[in-house]
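Worked Example 4.2. Consider the chain below.
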Amino acid sequence: MATVSVYNMEGKEVGTMDLNDAVFGVEVNEHLVHMAVVAQLANKRQGTQKAKTRSEVSGGGRKPWRQKGTGHARQGSTRAPQWTGGGVVFAPTPRDYTIRLNKKEKRLALKSALTSKVQEKKLIVVDELKFDEIKTKNFKNVLDNLKTTKALVVLNDNDKNVVMSARNIPDVKTALTNTINVFDILKYNTVIVTKDAVATIEEVYA
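Applying the procedure from the previous section yields the following structure tokens:
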């Protein structure tokens, strides 16, 4: 069972916390982590590209000139690809890029990502994040105290003051325990989690 230090918003160590090995101490499955990232990026694609083929472009029903005797090359339609205003040869069509993982794969991929952060000592647990007002400077001070910049901040509750204070800081993203995903965990250098959020994650994924 991994033991991590718990810090306050001033960056001082105020205690320790044991992490559940069922969530933060699993064997890292790199293949599943890769599949989860690929699936998430693929599922963001709209797939709405579309161009018309020669059969879909309006017009061109009549043969432009007779087959022989004109001196021109034979032509069957003014909407063939070689004509201006004609169709596209292998036109792109709307497509579904969705990749599906089953629940067990998703859970294990998330656990693997969290475990890798613990192993790299890039998971910081804070006792709480509370602000009296919405102020970016306050959140920046907390990051400076924790000696981190590019961070994913995982909260248990949607605290408006915390979320709004972090919104304008580049390379910082806030997430709730039910919205964390493998891509974000790997994208940011550090994962900052409140004690309450750790308890919720362990309860859901253990």
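The longest strand covers residues 13-18. The longest helix spans residues 103-119. Compare this with Example 4.1 before moving on.
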